[in-house]
Amino acid sequence: MRIDGELAKQKGSGEVAKEKNRCCSRKKSKRQQKKALAAPTPTVVQRLWETCKEVFADCGPGVVPLPGDVGRLRSFLDGMKPADVGLHPNLPFFQDVKGTPPVTYLHLHQCRKFSIGIFCLPRAAVIPLHNHPGMTVFSKLLFGSMHIRSFDWVDSSEQIRSSNGACLAKLNTDSVMNAPCETSILYPAAGGNMHCFTAVTPCAVLDVLGPPYDGPEGRDCKYYTEASCSSFPGDATASAAPGDNDRYAWLEEMQGKPDDFNVRGEEYKGPKIVGY
Question: CA angle, corner 150, sides to 145 and 151, nearest 5?
Fold first, then answer.
């Protein structure tokens, strides 16, 4: 009988211990649920920054992200909308103005690996023909319509030059993009590394550059004027572009930024990036 009493006592103690464990588990679960509810859901902009940080982690000048990473970032940008960055067409910097319309730049982030920014263009605003040395660039048209004209050098390693020093380039893109549309990508030596944007309607384009411009590291932004192949008859065009001169042009580097290119910075007021 004493043995049975001891067993009952031990069994009772075991049940009490199990109940305590169950209570602790329930309390822990509730704390975790409260913590999960209290933690804010990352914004689209925050997730864009985190994706860029992963995609460009092992990249540098002239180094293109792996194809899978390029596809992942492009897919993420494809899903972005103006509201994700706090933009809408009725904002002041999208309104028509007299004279040459200015371009507004909204800065979101820049580090050694990549930068994120938004160009806001009113109707007829132009970002002149310029290059992206050693960069992979993702351009997402958030809203509106924009004409893109872009080129790549015919020979990036040993550029073909005209008698006045202009370099021969091949046309990559000459078309109008209408949002929503797929994110465009250019590469260090392909995909239209030199491009010009013209706003057909008020529009906004989000740019991710990897790596960003950096003068001391030799990544200055250079601007170009375009001349048709027939402008320099007898030059190297005949052998480089036989019978297809409309797809080629001479690009001459300008001394600094064009005088009529008015770009101004404004504070970005959309969701902020945290944690860097």
Answer: 175
Give yes or no for residue 38 having a pLDDT over 60: no
Distance, in Å, from the CA atom of 240 to the CA atom of 166, rounded to the nearest integer, reads 14
Residue 190 near residue 274 (C-beta atoms within 8 A): no
**Cα angle at 228 between 227 and 233, to 5 degrees?**
110
Q: Which residues contact 274 (CB under 8 A, 6 or more apart)?
A: 46
Length of the chain: 276
Q: Is the pLDDT of residue 35 over 80?
A: no
Q: How far apart are CA 73 and CA 173, in angstroms?
A: 21
Structure letter (DSSP) for residue 190? B
**If we measure between CA atoms, which residue out of 101, 129, 57, 270 comes closest to residue 200?**
101
Condensed to tens digits (0 to 9), the pLDDT of residues 138-149 reads 999 999 999 999
Bridge partner list, 224: 253
**Among candidate residues 122, 105, 130, 99, the one with its CA nearest the CA of residue 258:** 130
Strands of 263-266's sheet, edge to edge?
184-186, 136-143, 203-210, 115-121, 103-110, 263-266
Q: pLDDT by residue (tens digit) across 128-139?
A: 999 999 999 999
* Token reading at 276: 């860097």
Over 90: is that where the pLDDT of 243 sits? no
As a whole number of angstroms, the distance between CA 150 and CA 132 comes to 12
On the 0-12 / 13-18 / 19+ scale of CB atoms within 10 A, 116 is: buried
Cβ atoms of 236 and 156 within 8 Å: the answer is no
Question: Please, which pLDDT band fits residue 162 given cuts at 50, 70 and 90?
Answer: confident
Burial status of residue 196 (CB atoms within 10 A of its CB: 0-12, 13-18, 19 or more): buried
For residue 164, what pLDDT is reported?
73
Q: Which two tokens stand for residue 145?
A: 């319509």
Q: pLDDT at position 156, please?
A: 65
